[in-house]
Amino acid sequence: MLEAIILGILQGLTEFIPVSSSAHLILLPWFFGWQGVVNTLGFDVALHLGTLIALVVYFRKDWVELLRTARRKDGMIWHILIATVPAAVAGLIFRDAVEGLRSPVLIIFTLSVVAALMLFTEKVKKGSEGIGMDKISRKDALIIGIAQALALVPGVSRSGITIVAGLMRGVQRQAAARFSFLMSTPIIAGAGFLETRKLVLSGDAAVRPDLFLAGIAVSAVTGYIAIKYLLRFLQNHSLKPFAYYRFLLAFVIIITVWTNR
Strand, helix or coil at 200? Predict the structure, then answer.
């Protein structure tokens, strides 16, 4: 139970802060030798359901407005759906292959590459300036959506890569983060549905409802806090602290892998 709670806290914080939740959920059990139900992709997705709750609750007013304006051709909900398509297609095609991508070496690479992209983007773009979310075009949405598809690979970070893509398209930093969170909602919901269906059909006795419910509840609460914190933080700060953290985490993994050879 303690492991489930710890991973729930970790998921809630790292799903929205651009440091890669998948990397942390893979690495923590690896570091401490945790086995069993908390070290499976199915449990990862259960934690994502908690963060889905956080998203829906935090952005409930946004979703009401999005649905209210859905009949308009330029409604933002259509941009969100466009941004959802690349990751949805990639997830359906490569889902089984992605489940096996849990190598520390791969995570070192993706953590470092996206960290470098963050620093580069902050150097060439002024995230405090730029267009608001209401000015994002369908082309912008598609490009940001393609970036979201890359986040299927552990260590990339869904929020990190999509915020970077938004900044490169001239979107203001906080607006890019807000769009990133809204567009992630259908993807997280879809992934949760597919994996839940898979677990139910498998009849896997290793699935403990108490652990899953604890993980979902904790990740929902911490996820809500993380969303609120990040949006406020990005009003006046860049992505640089997160990039430096990613480099530090990659370095720690390198040292750990080297000493355990």
Answer: helix
Tokens of 171: 């979107």
Say if CB 117 and CB 163 are below 8 A apart.
no
- In angstroms, the CA 121 to CA 217 distance is 35
Give pLDDT tens digits for 134-155: 899 999 999 999 999 999 898 9
pLDDT for residue 195 is more than 60: yes
Tell me if residue 253 falls in helix, strand or coil: helix
In DSSP notation, 79-102 reads HHHHHHHHHHHHHHHHHHHHHT--
Please state, in angstroms and as integers, the Cα–Cα distance from residue 209 to each residue in 33, 43, 123, 200, following that order.
22, 10, 46, 11
Number of DSSP helices (H) and strands (E) in the chain, helices first:
11, 0
| CB environment 139-160: b (16+ within 10 A), e (fewer) | ebbebbbbbbbbbbbbbbbbbb
Please count the other Cβ atoms lying within 10 Å of the Cβ belonging to residue 243.
25
Instruction: Write out the H or E segment, with its range, that includes residue 24.
Output: helix 21-32
Using the predicted structure, report yes or no on whether residue 206 has a pLDDT greater than 60. Answer: no
Q: Based on C-alpha coordinates, what's the Rg of the chain?
A: 18
For residue range 245-258, what is the model confidence (pLDDT) as tens digits? 999 999 988 988 88
Contacts of 93 (CB under 8 A, 6+ apart): none
Q: Please name every residue paired with 131 in a beta bridge, in sequence order, or none if there are none.
A: 171
Rounded Cα gap, residues 29 and 111, in angstroms? 18
Q: Taking the C-alpha atoms of 152, 133, 225 and 157 in order, what is their torsion angle to the nearest 10 degrees?
A: 20
